[in-house]
Amino acid sequence: MKKKKVISALLVAAMAASLLAGCGNEGGNPTTGGQSGQPVGGGESSQPTDGGESSQPATGEEQVLKVAAFEGGYGAEMWSEVVAAFEASHPGVTVELTIDKKLEDVISPSMKAGEYPDVVHLATGREAALTETLTKENALLPLTDVLEMNVPGENVKVKDKIIPGFLDTLATNPYGDGVTYYAPMFYSPCGLFYNAGLFKEKGWDVPTTWEEMWALGDKAAEDGIALFTYPTTGYFDAFTYATLSSAGGSDFFNSCMTYEDGIWESENATKVFNLIEQLGKYTEATTVANANNDNFTKNQQLILDNKAIFCPNGTWLPGEMKDAPRADGFEWGFMAIPAVNAGGAGCSFCWFEQMWIPAAAQNQDLAKEFVAYMYSDEAAQIFAKSTAIQPIAGVSNYLEGDNKMFYSIYDNGATAVMGGFASTAPVEGVNMLDVLCGTVNSIVSGDKTVAEWQAAVESASDKLRAAME
Predict the structure, then answer these.
(1) Burial of 400 (0-12, 13-18, 19+ CB in 10 A)
(2) Which residue has the higher pLDDT, 49 or 395?
(3) What is the pTM of this model?
(4) Could you tell me the domains of the chain?
């Protein structure tokens, strides 16, 4: 696969994460006056340093670390607290912290002048595309050796602390060469929401396979309850990504995202098309009519009213429906998408943000130490107070209420899935997500066949593959 193609395959998921995180007010000022970084071109790239061990300064040695962080919906206070904790655990280190909602505007001028931050928290998918620009210029430091470091203050390697699946994606390895350049940060899992109270009332077991799903659908139909609903077809992006990865693994999923020739006609893709068609037969009858931006909450209401069992969504759903009426005994339940293949694990697609080190950073060893510290229990607990959840094993231990249940999905064995379609030059009349996900209404209603759908997706993929050249 050509490097430029893989670079362009930066997460639609990360895009959504950065947009969601950026829902705060415009403006904002950097804290402390650290000169921070910058974008496009500018400055000679330094070579990666050897990493692995803690880079705490010797007694009496003072070090300054320049950290630039995007201020999203989680606010700025958590960054100040994390920096203070890092300084306390690293005597002799002073962190100059720059935080802003428009971080690119703040750090770009100094970067153009050759003065880079040592560490940057800024996701892909933002309008300014600073992260993508530096990636295309090969101006980021590899972080693979950080994964082999022990988490500061803990006897565990970074790679073993991060939830499986987060490091096997184009959203962390943008060149597709197995080398990590983006450290995964703050994530939100997607899956199937349901009324756990209904399962208790009926004595049902939560299904873990699609065979069990179909059996539950048949049983529930006897009580006039549908197995499935969905807000709009747009929610089939996370659902379909998870099922694709479950069907064929991460390499197959990445091939789908980069329009490999014939990939949508493959056996694994066919499994997914057929599965969604079958699910359509178990979908609540009013779903298609309300699957639009005006009435989507009516579909979400179906699971609160015990008229449908499962609804795909993200962790924002309970907040979105917090004031909606619900059946007596209602309790939020949340599960991964069942495994497509027998013996496989369930999968959950998630959005997440990213942290990286410019190759021109002046204090690379300490920068790596700071990145490793992001996965410490201490840092994770600080972030969690602002509902910024780190992708580390056991993170649910720091959470309470529904969030504890939502974020335990990976602790309970689900595989994390991340990725999105590669960007291309515009192709008139072709939108991959529209063809792949937007067609679901027609499949559920019976207006189109799976064969027609599959052929249309392959055709769109062919056209977009050519636009990547």
Answers:
(1) exposed
(2) 395
(3) 0.71
(4) 3-188+351-407 (3.40.190.10), 191-349+422-466 (3.40.190.10)
